[in-house]
Amino acid sequence: xxxxxERKKGREVSLYEPIGTDKEGNVxxxxxxxxxxxxxxxxxxxxxxxxRRMYGAFEDSLSDREKQVVALRYGLxxxxxxxxxxxxxxxxxxxxYVSRIEKGALLKLRSVxxxxxxxx
Length: 120
Description:
Strand order of the largest sheet: 1-2
Order of helices and strands: HEEHHHHH
Structural class: mainly alpha
Strand content: 5-15%
Helix content: 55-70%
Number of helices: 6
Protein name: Sigma-70 family RNA polymerase sigma factor
InterPro entries: Cro/C1-type_HTH (IPR001387), RNA_pol_sigma-70_dom (IPR014284), RNA_pol_sigma70 (IPR000943), RNA_pol_sigma70_r4 (IPR007630), RNA_pol_sigma_r3/r4-like (IPR013324), Sigma-70_Factor (IPR050813)
Largest sheet: 2 strands, antiparallel
Domain HTH cro/C1-type: 83-104
Distance between the termini: 51 Å
Oligomer: single chain
GO molecular function: DNA-binding transcription factor activity
Family: Belongs to the sigma-70 factor family.
């Protein structure tokens, strides 16, 4: 139980945690190297186009059940992200079936996104 609880904390990172030292021997932390500048316009446009393509592929290539599982798992359309266990409870199916549906849906989306050329 302890290991499961600690695994949830594994993705947490402190901004003040030391990550190394500079030439003079001073400790460097993440907060020292993070830039607050926004992304450039070209990158923002590219990301927005990719998101639109993904939502299009989501609507066109997935079944209703797959759409429901992926939307709940990843918090699409402004929703909250849910665990597989929570999705299973909502849909009244097993957690392993949620995992199977999710994996199949993500593989479909990946193949569709790789086949479609990016719009100019």
